[in-house]
Amino acid sequence: MATFADAVGFLVASKLAEIFIPFILIFALVYAILQKTKAIGGKPDMDSIVSLAVALAVVISPGFRAYVLELTPFIAVFLAVIFFAMLAFLMYGVDLGDITKATKKPIVYLLFIAIVAIFAFFVLNEVYTSYSNTTGFPSDIYAENVTLKQVSGEGGFNVVIRHPAVLGTVTLLVLLAVSVYAIVYIPKKKE
Predict the structure, then answer these.
(1) Do residues 86 and 173 share a domain?
(2) Would you say 102 and 186 are in contact if contact means Cβ atoms under 8 Å apart?
(3) What 3 state SS string does the chain have?
(4) Is 12 in the same domain as 83?
(5) Are residues 46 and 139 in the same domain?
(6) 92 and 176 in one domain?
(7) How far is CA 176 from CA 49, 120, 162, 171, in A?
(8) Domain span at 83
(9) How far apart are CA 129 and CA 55, in angstroms?
(10) What integer pLDDT is reported at residue 31 of this predicted model?
(11) Of 22, 47, 73, 106, which residue is 20 to 30 A from 147 by alpha carbon distance?
(12) Residue 27's pLDDT is what?
Protein backbone atom coordinates (compact mmCIF):
# COMPACT_ATOMS: atom_id res chain seq x y z
CA MET A 1 0.00 0.00 0.00
CA ALA A 2 1.34 3.42 -0.92
CA THR A 3 1.97 5.85 1.89
CA PHE A 4 1.76 9.62 1.87
CA ALA A 5 5.56 9.83 1.69
CA ASP A 6 5.53 7.58 -1.39
CA ALA A 7 2.96 9.82 -3.07
CA VAL A 8 4.99 12.95 -2.33
CA GLY A 9 8.15 11.22 -3.52
CA PHE A 10 6.40 10.27 -6.76
CA LEU A 11 5.22 13.85 -7.29
CA VAL A 12 8.72 15.22 -6.77
CA ALA A 13 10.47 12.54 -8.86
CA SER A 14 8.07 12.90 -11.79
CA LYS A 15 8.25 16.72 -11.74
CA LEU A 16 4.47 16.86 -11.28
CA ALA A 17 5.01 18.90 -8.13
CA GLU A 18 6.47 21.70 -10.25
CA ILE A 19 3.08 22.01 -11.94
CA PHE A 20 0.75 20.89 -9.15
CA ILE A 21 2.00 23.17 -6.34
CA PRO A 22 1.82 26.47 -8.28
CA PHE A 23 -1.56 25.48 -9.73
CA ILE A 24 -3.13 24.73 -6.34
CA LEU A 25 -1.54 27.75 -4.66
CA ILE A 26 -2.61 30.27 -7.31
CA PHE A 27 -6.06 28.70 -7.70
CA ALA A 28 -6.73 28.88 -3.95
CA LEU A 29 -5.32 32.39 -3.62
CA VAL A 30 -7.27 33.86 -6.55
CA TYR A 31 -10.45 32.06 -5.50
CA ALA A 32 -10.15 33.36 -1.93
CA ILE A 33 -9.54 36.92 -3.13
CA LEU A 34 -12.48 36.79 -5.53
CA GLN A 35 -14.78 35.34 -2.87
CA LYS A 36 -13.73 37.92 -0.29
CA THR A 37 -13.92 40.98 -2.56
CA LYS A 38 -16.88 39.79 -4.66
CA ALA A 39 -15.11 41.40 -7.63
CA ILE A 40 -17.08 39.46 -10.26
CA GLY A 41 -20.32 39.02 -8.36
CA GLY A 42 -19.34 36.62 -5.59
CA LYS A 43 -20.78 33.55 -7.31
CA PRO A 44 -18.63 30.50 -6.46
CA ASP A 45 -18.91 28.96 -9.93
CA MET A 46 -17.74 32.11 -11.73
CA ASP A 47 -14.97 32.66 -9.20
CA SER A 48 -13.76 29.09 -9.67
CA ILE A 49 -13.70 29.44 -13.47
CA VAL A 50 -11.66 32.65 -13.29
CA SER A 51 -9.35 31.08 -10.68
CA LEU A 52 -8.89 28.04 -12.91
CA ALA A 53 -7.99 30.23 -15.89
CA VAL A 54 -5.47 32.27 -13.89
CA ALA A 55 -3.91 29.13 -12.36
CA LEU A 56 -3.57 27.50 -15.78
CA ALA A 57 -1.96 30.67 -17.16
CA VAL A 58 0.57 30.57 -14.31
CA VAL A 59 1.35 26.90 -14.91
CA ILE A 60 1.88 27.52 -18.63
CA SER A 61 4.36 30.37 -17.99
CA PRO A 62 7.72 28.80 -16.98
CA GLY A 63 9.14 32.00 -15.47
CA PHE A 64 6.15 32.70 -13.26
CA ARG A 65 5.89 29.02 -12.33
CA ALA A 66 9.53 29.08 -11.18
CA TYR A 67 8.79 32.25 -9.19
CA VAL A 68 5.82 30.63 -7.43
CA LEU A 69 7.87 27.50 -6.70
CA GLU A 70 10.60 29.61 -5.08
CA LEU A 71 8.02 31.67 -3.17
CA THR A 72 6.15 28.65 -1.75
CA PRO A 73 8.56 27.90 1.15
CA PHE A 74 8.48 31.55 2.20
CA ILE A 75 4.68 31.50 2.22
CA ALA A 76 4.71 28.35 4.35
CA VAL A 77 7.17 29.84 6.85
CA PHE A 78 5.25 33.14 6.95
CA LEU A 79 1.96 31.36 7.68
CA ALA A 80 3.65 29.23 10.36
CA VAL A 81 5.08 32.35 12.02
CA ILE A 82 1.66 34.02 12.00
CA PHE A 83 0.07 30.88 13.45
CA PHE A 84 2.62 30.57 16.25
CA ALA A 85 2.46 34.30 17.00
CA MET A 86 -1.32 34.06 17.40
CA LEU A 87 -0.87 30.94 19.51
CA ALA A 88 1.61 32.78 21.75
CA PHE A 89 -0.74 35.75 22.16
CA LEU A 90 -3.63 33.44 23.02
CA MET A 91 -1.43 31.49 25.44
CA TYR A 92 -0.60 34.70 27.32
CA GLY A 93 -4.24 35.64 27.72
CA VAL A 94 -4.91 38.00 24.84
CA ASP A 95 -8.48 37.63 23.62
CA LEU A 96 -9.05 36.59 20.01
CA GLY A 97 -11.28 39.63 19.51
CA ASP A 98 -8.41 41.90 20.58
CA ILE A 99 -6.12 40.24 18.04
CA THR A 100 -8.75 40.74 15.34
CA LYS A 101 -9.16 44.41 16.28
CA ALA A 102 -5.38 44.91 16.26
CA THR A 103 -5.10 43.49 12.75
CA LYS A 104 -7.54 46.11 11.45
CA LYS A 105 -5.11 48.95 12.18
CA PRO A 106 -3.18 50.56 9.29
CA ILE A 107 0.26 49.85 10.81
CA VAL A 108 -0.46 46.11 10.66
CA TYR A 109 -1.41 46.39 6.99
CA LEU A 110 1.78 48.33 6.27
CA LEU A 111 3.89 45.77 8.14
CA PHE A 112 2.19 42.94 6.25
CA ILE A 113 2.76 44.66 2.89
CA ALA A 114 6.41 45.33 3.78
CA ILE A 115 7.04 41.69 4.73
CA VAL A 116 5.33 40.41 1.58
CA ALA A 117 7.32 42.85 -0.56
CA ILE A 118 10.60 41.76 1.04
CA PHE A 119 9.78 38.10 0.40
CA ALA A 120 8.64 38.82 -3.17
CA PHE A 121 11.75 40.81 -4.10
CA PHE A 122 14.05 38.29 -2.42
CA VAL A 123 12.51 35.43 -4.37
CA LEU A 124 12.49 37.50 -7.57
CA ASN A 125 16.23 37.97 -7.11
CA GLU A 126 16.69 34.23 -6.52
CA VAL A 127 14.76 33.25 -9.64
CA TYR A 128 16.34 35.79 -11.95
CA THR A 129 19.94 35.82 -10.65
CA SER A 130 21.39 35.57 -14.13
CA TYR A 131 20.13 39.09 -14.88
CA SER A 132 21.47 40.63 -11.68
CA ASN A 133 24.89 38.95 -11.86
CA THR A 134 26.22 41.16 -14.66
CA THR A 135 28.10 43.81 -12.66
CA GLY A 136 31.59 42.42 -13.09
CA PHE A 137 32.34 40.73 -9.80
CA PRO A 138 32.91 36.97 -9.79
CA SER A 139 29.78 34.85 -9.70
CA ASP A 140 31.33 32.53 -7.09
CA ILE A 141 31.06 35.21 -4.40
CA TYR A 142 28.24 34.05 -2.17
CA ALA A 143 26.47 36.07 0.47
CA GLU A 144 28.05 34.11 3.32
CA ASN A 145 31.68 34.99 2.59
CA VAL A 146 31.58 38.47 1.07
CA THR A 147 32.40 41.86 2.57
CA LEU A 148 31.08 45.25 1.56
CA LYS A 149 34.43 46.21 0.03
CA GLN A 150 34.18 43.37 -2.52
CA VAL A 151 30.84 44.29 -4.08
CA SER A 152 29.46 47.13 -6.16
CA GLY A 153 26.47 47.95 -8.34
CA GLU A 154 23.10 46.24 -8.46
CA GLY A 155 24.57 42.75 -8.10
CA GLY A 156 26.50 43.96 -5.06
CA PHE A 157 23.31 45.33 -3.55
CA ASN A 158 21.64 41.95 -4.02
CA VAL A 159 24.58 40.15 -2.37
CA VAL A 160 24.53 42.53 0.60
CA ILE A 161 20.75 42.28 1.02
CA ARG A 162 20.99 38.47 1.07
CA HIS A 163 23.87 38.47 3.56
CA PRO A 164 22.88 36.46 6.68
CA ALA A 165 23.87 39.32 9.00
CA VAL A 166 21.58 41.74 7.17
CA LEU A 167 18.69 39.26 7.06
CA GLY A 168 19.14 38.44 10.74
CA THR A 169 19.19 42.12 11.68
CA VAL A 170 16.05 42.86 9.66
CA THR A 171 14.28 39.86 11.17
CA LEU A 172 15.25 40.94 14.69
CA LEU A 173 14.06 44.50 14.06
CA VAL A 174 10.72 43.28 12.71
CA LEU A 175 10.24 41.00 15.73
CA LEU A 176 11.10 43.84 18.09
CA ALA A 177 8.70 46.19 16.30
CA VAL A 178 5.87 43.68 16.51
CA SER A 179 6.63 43.01 20.19
CA VAL A 180 6.65 46.71 21.06
CA TYR A 181 3.42 47.21 19.13
CA ALA A 182 1.82 44.29 20.98
CA ILE A 183 2.94 45.58 24.36
CA VAL A 184 1.88 49.18 23.77
CA TYR A 185 -1.29 48.95 21.69
CA ILE A 186 -2.99 45.65 22.49
CA PRO A 187 -5.15 46.25 25.57
CA LYS A 188 -4.82 43.94 28.53
CA LYS A 189 -7.62 41.49 29.24
CA LYS A 190 -9.88 42.70 32.05
CA GLU A 191 -10.52 40.10 34.69
Answers:
(1) yes
(2) yes
(3) CCCHHHHHHHHHHCCCHHHHHHHHHHHHHHHHHHHHHCCCCCCHHHHHHHHHHHHHHHHHCHHHHHHHHHHHHHHHHHHHHHHHHHHHHHHCCCCHHHHHHHCCCHHHHHHHHHHHHHHHHHHHHHHCHHHHCCCCCCCCCCHHHCCHHHCCHHHHHHHHHCCHHHHHHHHHHHHHHHHHHHHHHCCCCCC
(4) no
(5) no
(6) yes
(7) 43, 22, 20, 9
(8) 72-191
(9) 25
(10) 92
(11) 73
(12) 92
Same domain, 101 and 189: yes
pLDDT tens for each residue of 87-137: 888 888 888 888 888 888 888 888 888 888 887 777 777 666 544 444 444
- The span from the CA of 172 to the CA of 59, in Å, is 36
Overall domain count for the chain: 2
28 with 78, same domain: the answer is no
* Residues in CB range of 105: below 8 A, 6 or more apart: 185
Residues 42 and 91 reside in one and the same domain: no
pLDDT value of position 155: 60
Give the amino acid at 16: L
